[in-house]
Amino acid sequence: MKRKILITGGAGFIGSNVADAYLADGYEVVVVDDLSSGSLENLDSRVKFYQLNICSPALEEIFAREKPDVVNHHAAQISVPYSIENPINDAEINLKGFLNVLQCSVKYGVRKVILISSGGAIYGEAEEYPASENCPLNPLSIYAIHKLTSEYYVRFYQYQYNLTYTILRYANVYGPRQVAQSEAGVVSIFIEKLLHNQAPMLYAYPDEPEGMIRDYVYVKDVVRANVAALDKGDNDVFNIGTGQETTTSFLYRTIAWQLGTDLRPIPGPPRKGDLRRSLLDCSKAFKELGWSPLYTLDAGIRETIEFFKNKESLK
Fold first, then answer.
1. 20 to 30 A from 234, CA-CA: which of 73, 166, 173, 270?
2. Which among 143, 165, 170, 203 is annotated as catalytic?
C-alpha cells in the first residue's frame, strides 16, 4: 500500500514542486491550500486537493478522511516586512495554523511531520558565518520569531506525543513557479521586470551598495531534501542551502546577463527586517541526509528564466 503524504501549502511555489517529486516516487499526495498565493495550475491531476485555510476547524475533517502517514508543512505567511507590519495575522497563520496541523496529526496517527523553517531568517545577524545548525538563534523579525516558535512546538509534540519530525531550514529558494511578490521572490521579480523591459528596485544599505548577501538555493535541490527527509533525519534540524554567498547586485547581473539586457536597477533603501547577510553551512545535511545541492546559480537561473519565458509565451 502506497504511503499517503499531506502537503499544506502544496499548491504554492515550493510545495507544488515537492508534490510532483512525491508523486513521481509513487506516493499518494493530498494537498491543503487556501490559494492565497498558490495556484491550481501548479497541481498535477493525480493530487487530491482541498481548498482550505490551515487555521480552519474543518482541517480535522480532512485528516479524519485521509489519514495521512506524513505531513509536509509548507503553508506559511512568508514576507518578513509583512510580519512586522501585521504581527497578529502572521501569528494566526504561522503559529495557530501550525498548531492546528499538529493537533490533527496527533489525533489521526500521523507518523512524521516535516516542518519547513527559515535558515534565511532564524539566525538573524549570525554570530558565525556560514551559520551551522548549532549557531545561536537570534530572530530579528516577527516572521523569524514565529518560525523558531514553530520549531519549539514540534519538538514539544515529539516529547509529549512521540510525533516524529524533521525540520528543514531553507536558505533563499528560487525557481519555476515562484510568485513575483514580496522580498522572498527577488529572483522572479527581477526576471519578470526585465522580461518587460522594466527596471526593478535593488535594496541595499548605504554602506553596502552591492546589496544584502544571501544564500540562493534552487528549488529542485530543495525538493530532493524533502524526499530525503521522508525516511532520514528523524527528530533533527537541517540547513538546506548552498553555502555560497551572493550579493543582490551579483544576482541581478547574473539574470540581466542571461537575458541580454544592460538595464540598470533602481537603488532603494533596506526594508524592515532586512538582514545584511545570511549564509548557511549545510554539511550536516550531507552527512545525515545524504543531501547536497547540485545546481549552480547560473544553471538554476537559466532554468528559471526558461520557465518564465514559456509562461509569457502562453499569455
1. 173
2. 143
Domain ranges in the chain with CATH number 3.40.50.720: 4-171+218-240
Q: Is 218 a catalytic residue?
A: no
The overall pTM is greater than 0.90: yes
Grade residue 183 by pLDDT with cuts at 50, 70 and 90.
low
CATH T-level topology, domain 4-171+218-240: Rossmann fold (3.40.50)
Say which CATH architecture domain 174-214+244-279+294-313 belongs to: Alpha-Beta Complex (3.90)
b or e along 197-233 (b: 16 or more beta carbons within 10 Å of the residue's beta carbon)?
Answer: eeebebbbeeeeeebbbbbbbbbbbbbbbbbbbbebb
Strand, coil or helix: 72? strand
